[in-house]
Amino acid sequence: MNQFLESTGVEYPIIGGPMYPCSNPELVAAQSEAGVLGVVQPLSLTYVHGYDFLEGLRYIQSLTQNPIGFNALIEKSSRKYHERMSTWIDIALDQGVKFFITSLGKPDWVVKRVHGYGGQVYHDVTERKWAQIGVDCGVDGLICVNNRAGGHCGGLSPQELVEQCLDFDKPLVCAGGVATAEALKDMLDLGYQACQLGTRFIATDECKVSDSYKKAIINADESDIALTEKMTGVPVSIIKPEMKSERDLKAQGVLGWMLQSRRFKHLARLYLSLRSIMGLKKAISDNAAESEYWQAGKSVDGIHSVVSVKQVVNELVSQLQTPSK
Ligand SMILES: Cc1cc2nc3c(=O)[nH]c(=O)nc-3n(C[C@H](O)[C@H](O)[C@H](O)COP(=O)(O)O)c2cc1C
Hints:
- By secondary structure, the protein is an alpha/beta fold.
- It has two domains: 3-208 and 305-319, Aldolase class I (TIM Barrel); 211-300, no CATH class.
- Helices cover 40% and strands 15% of the residues.
- The strands form two sheets. Strands 1-2-3-4-5-6-8-9 form an eight-stranded parallel β-barrel, surrounded by seven helices. Strands 7, 10, 11 and 12 form a four-stranded antiparallel sheet that branches.
- Helix 2 runs parallel beside helix 4 (53-63).
- The protein is globular and about 50 Å long.
- Flavin mononucleotide binds next to strand 4, strand 9 and helix 10.
């Protein structure tokens, strides 16, 4: 029995990973409509794509009757941010959303609220230490973010993560490095119950990023992927721009010093994150020929064309013996 499929009611063991700024409502809806779990990234929905949160959620739900998820980024940055995220969670619950992915922070308060509505919370983890915190807070599953993932990536391989987390006896989801039917099957054989994909879904008809971004993904291979701390202060996977050296990808000067300091690193991360939240919005603009950084993971290796979400999903599940529940 696949607990992930049973409990979510989703057809295939795939999550359309939340992506700032790439999760536009049509992409999320197309993922759910294709039988995978599309996940709303609320900052992307509101700040990048310009929807009032409730209106955006209703729009997605008008495009698909299938389940969708919600990405609760619960880091403690400011009271105002926390209040806004908390309100969005309540609205999502009221609208019938039952699947929540928490990133960063301690998810106990989200778990309590979501369980009150009969929903489930999966927590993003990059190593056992964070998984333990999530499990202690009562989460229902773990999203194991590995060292091949796009966005904020982890430091461990998919194999290492499954070994570290299997004995929690929670459904494990592999996040990172999957863009092909072979990779999906390999991860399920390894013990994961589902895979969360980001990069593969950027190169789709429904994703509203610029054509330059999609082309950069298609043209890149694994060796083009590098890490930079310049976006948020912690490693983010990007396609290394040709003109940049490894040194260019590191924060320099005062910011570099602040990131090394126990006292100031949170301030530096907050500053960098706010700056990149604004900068990344450019990725959806048609005339954005170049962005400083295109976020993508090592799964670029298996991505060679821009096709519809439905085609991506059909291809991904083609090697599963019993692709649906
Ligand atoms: C451009 C981009 C933005 C992302 N933004 C978020 C985010 O806002 N929240 C989150 O939990 N994960 C985010 N992720 C991670 C994805 O949800 C997913 O876990 C990851 O992309 C899986 O690795 P893959 O890109 O190799 O498929 C992002 C990934 C990418 C590529």
